[in-house]
Design brief:
The chain is of the alpha/beta class. The protein has a domain at 3-139: Rossmann fold (3-Layer(aba) Sandwich), CATH 3.40.50.720. The chain is built from 8 helices and 8 strands. The protein has helices at 3-14, 17-24, 39-50, 64-68, 101-104, 121-124, 147-158, 178-182; strands at residues 30-34, 54-59, 73-76, 89-94, 108-116, 137-139, 166-171, 190-194. It has a 6-stranded parallel β-sheet. Strands 7-8 form a two-stranded parallel sheet. Strand 2 (54-59), helix 4 (64-68) and strand 3 (73-76) form a beta-alpha-beta unit. Helix 1 packs across helix 3 and helix 2 runs parallel beside helix 3 (39-50).
Length: 200
């Protein structure tokens, strides 16, 4: 399998709820992805959009162009806080551990779902979750990828409908120096370690 193929199979699966979007995202739903320029975020954006959702990506100024190129509307969190814009979404996917329920409660539509990809231990235990009467749900924890999900991802990728965002590729022997070689700042998409040097 090529390096790009590995990224396509690993990143959506590691997002826990990314693959579940193929089951819970319906046409016409509004989905917000916080951290839309990372490996998990770019996968979530593309999968939600492919499933027919109206997607908004939240990212930093430096990555607005990258996320916009995925075909979705973008909110620059350095210019505007998505949680105070007055907009609401059916599903908010937080890949950055910066959008707990208390912050984005008012940004969820009635019956909305907040997906915490990087949930804390307390959040996983259910601390800080909304009351059942609110109708809103916080989703945490591991959701195993089903074989049919992986086949769907592979089919989309083979047709060019789902593409990995790759920050940079490095030889396996340079893995220890990757942080130094990348320099400061957050990565954009995935960092790929290549075992065979002839693939660089």
């Amino acid at each position: 399998m090529s390096g790009i193929g590995v990224v396509m199979m690993m990143r959506p699966a590691s997002a826990d709820l990314d693959l579940s979007l193929t089951r819970v995202t319906e046409h016409g739903l509004f989905v917000g992805v916080v951290g839309a320029s990372g490996a998990v975020g770019t996968a979530a954006v593309q999968i939600a959009r492919h499933c027919g959702a109206d997607v908004t990506g939240v990212t930093s100024t430096a990555n607005v162009e990258l996320v916009a190129a995925l075909g979705v509307r973008v909110i620059d969190h350095m210019q505007s806080d998505f949680a105070t814009t007055g907009e609401t979404w059916d599903i908010i996917i937080d890949t950055t551990a910066t959008a707990p329920f208390v912050r984005c409660e008012q940004s969820l539509k009635p019956g909305g779902r907040l997906v915490l990809v990087l949930a804390s231990f307390a959040q996983t235990l259910g601390i800080g979750r909304p009351p059942k009467a609110s109708g809103k749900v916080v989703i945490t924890g591991y959701v195993p990828a089903r074989p049919e999900d992986l086949r769907t991802i592979a089919e989309w990728a083979s047709r060019g409908e789902l593409k990995p965002a790759i920050d940079r590729s490095y030889r396996l022997e340079d893995a220890a120096d990757t942080p130094r070689l990348r320099g400061p700042g957050r990565k954009r998409g995935s960092v790929v370690l290549v075992v065979a040097t002839d693939q660089l």
